[in-house]
């Protein structure tokens, strides 16, 4: 009895493991197309997943390959093994198989993005299935731990990708024309010892952002370090730029004790900074018609003295990426250099027609001055998220939700709606056009945007 039962047990395979040769036993796929976002040539992609389902009672055997085999830029991984072709893979009944897909695109010496496609071919029981593999390639100019030559102009034809760092040498100028794109690898940065001229326009801003173009990295802060202006760097212009997803948008420290403007920042957007949008230490800076939003700690920080002018900016910090406990805009004539020491200097700040808003009860603070220095603050006609009545009557304060009147903060639209409180209450400070090059009327709106009803 024992041997009869043992023999029967060996002969009885589970039904889900028995391979069917029936052509009517077909497979299902989680998608008919695997799509990658635009990818830089020579830079590997993220991994995409495709699931193949066997809805049948019995197991199915299948062969898989990318259509162009060894000539394909696409690679698949099956059961932990990477390759271009796999034979005799088995999916048990009512089970599935996960296929991992990656792509590495060869340069094609083209300025514009180009289509890169192939297919995943699956064969089982005389049935053939084709899953499209689609991506766009983008050729780029790569810069790795390098110093620019003197007086170089970057253009819009291809993006520039920085690994490690790129340096503008002392007494040299780097110019970025409209539409220039500079993409930064993880922890990469741009150091400016000379002069940086970012000269975008409304239709073709200069883009500085992370090098990962996949949608999951589109709004992720802290992916690169930022732009750092060194001591002695003067005459810098940042106009019509979009600076995204870094630790700091721009950081400047320039104690040269001259009245020359070190950095002019106009008509630009700073978004998704893990630390600060603009961080200035004893620098001469003018900031006009800019939008700064979603910053981990500071939208604007001016410490250690300096001269700063802010006209018609919109600073909004209602992020869902961070938990904050300190005001987003902070001003002080001192900055700590150790646990027991600080450096202090004269500070002069002019803030007119700005929106300073966020999700804390106080979003603007002037820290107690240190030492016997000249501290001048001309802060008037701003909308400030605050309960501190000392800002009145020169400014408008509130803690009411969306008091300025933004169109939609959830969608990051910080233009003004038709009934916005910020409309028509600005002072005429001679800034004719707004961030989008819309002309302001004789009663300008507060903030970077002028509302024009259609």
Structure, described:
With 454 residues, the chain is an all-beta fold. The protein has two domains: 12-137, Immunoglobulin-like; 140-416. The chain is 2% helix and 47% strand. The strands form five sheets. The protein has a 25-stranded parallel sheet that branches. Strands 2, 3, 5, 8, 10 and 11 form a six-stranded mixed sheet that branches. Strands 1-4-9-6-7 form a five-stranded antiparallel sheet, with no helix packed on it. The longest helix is centred in the N-terminal third of the chain and has 10 residues, at 2-11. It starts with a helix and ends in a 38-residue tail after the last strand.
Distance between the termini: 92 Å
Shape: elongated
Summarize model confidence as the mean pLDDT: 94
The tally of structural domains comes to 2
Class computed from helices, strands and strand pairing: mainly beta
Number of strands: 40
Biggest sheet record? 25 strands, parallel
Whole-angstrom Rg: 29 Å
- What percentage of amino acids are in beta strands? over 45%
Helical stretch tally: 1
Low-confidence stretches: 1-11
In percent, how helical is the residue content? under 10%
State the gist of this model.
With 454 residues, this protein is mainly β. Helix content is 2%, strand content 47%. It folds into 2 domains: 12-137, Immunoglobulins (Immunoglobulin-like, Sandwich); 140-416.
């Amino acid at each position: 009895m024992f041997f009869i039962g043992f023999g029967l047990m060996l002969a009885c395979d589970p039904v889900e493991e028995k391979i069917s040769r029936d052509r009517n036993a077909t497979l299902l796929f989680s998608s008919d197309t695997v799509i990658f976002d635009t990818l830089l040539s020579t830079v590997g992609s993220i991994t995409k997943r495709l699931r193949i389902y066997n809805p049948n009672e019995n197991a199915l055997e299948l062969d898989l390959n990318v259509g162009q085999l060894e000539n394909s830029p696409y690679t698949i991984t099956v059961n932990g093994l990477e390759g271009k072709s796999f034979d005799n893979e088995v999916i048990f009944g009512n089970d599935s198989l996960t296929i991992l897909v990656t792509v590495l695109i060869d340069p094609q010496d083209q300025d514009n993005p180009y289509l890169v496609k192939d297919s995943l071919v699956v064969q089982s029981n005389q049935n053939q299935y084709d899953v499209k593999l689609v991506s766009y390639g983008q050729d780029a100019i790569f810069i790795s731990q390098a110093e620019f030559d003197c007086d170089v102009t970057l253009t819009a034809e291809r993006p520039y990708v920085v690994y490690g760092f790129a340096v503008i040498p002392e007494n040299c100028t780097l110019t970025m024309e409209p539409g220039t794109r500079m993409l930064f690898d993880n922890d990469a940065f741009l150091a400016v010892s000379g002069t940086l001229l970012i000269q975008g326009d409304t239709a073709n801003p200069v883009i500085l952002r992370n090098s990962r173009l996949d949608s999951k990295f589109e709004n992720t802060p802290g992916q690169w370090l930022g732009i750092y202006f060194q001591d002695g760097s003067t005459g810098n212009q940042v106009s019509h730029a979009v600076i995204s997803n870094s630790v700091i948008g721009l950081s400047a420290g320039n104690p040269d004790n001259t009245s020359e403007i070190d950095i002019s920042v106009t008509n630009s957007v700073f978004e998704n900074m893990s630390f600060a949008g603009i961080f200035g230490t004893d620098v001469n800076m003018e900031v006009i018609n800019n939008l700064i939003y979603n910053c981990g700690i500071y939208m604007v920080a001016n410490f250690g003295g300096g001269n700063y002018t802010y006209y018609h900016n919109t600073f909004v910090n209602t992020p869902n990426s961070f938990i904050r406990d300190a005001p987003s805009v902070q001003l002080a004539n001192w900055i700590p250099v150790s646990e027991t020491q600080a450096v202090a200097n004269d500070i002069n700040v002019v803030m007119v027609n700005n929106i300073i808003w966020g999700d804390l009860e106080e979003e603007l603070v002037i820290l107690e001055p240190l030492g016997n220095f000249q501290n001048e603050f001309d802060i008037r006609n701003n909308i400030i998220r605050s309960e501190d009545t000392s800002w009145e009557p020169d400014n408008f304060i509130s803690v009411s939700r969306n008091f300025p009147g933004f169109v939609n903060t959830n969608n990051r639209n910080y233009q003004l709606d038709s009934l916005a409180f910020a409309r028509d209450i600005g002072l005429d400070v001679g800034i004719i056009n707004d961030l989008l090059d819309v002309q302001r009327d004789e009663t300008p709106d507060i903030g970077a945007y002028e509302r024009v009803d259609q």
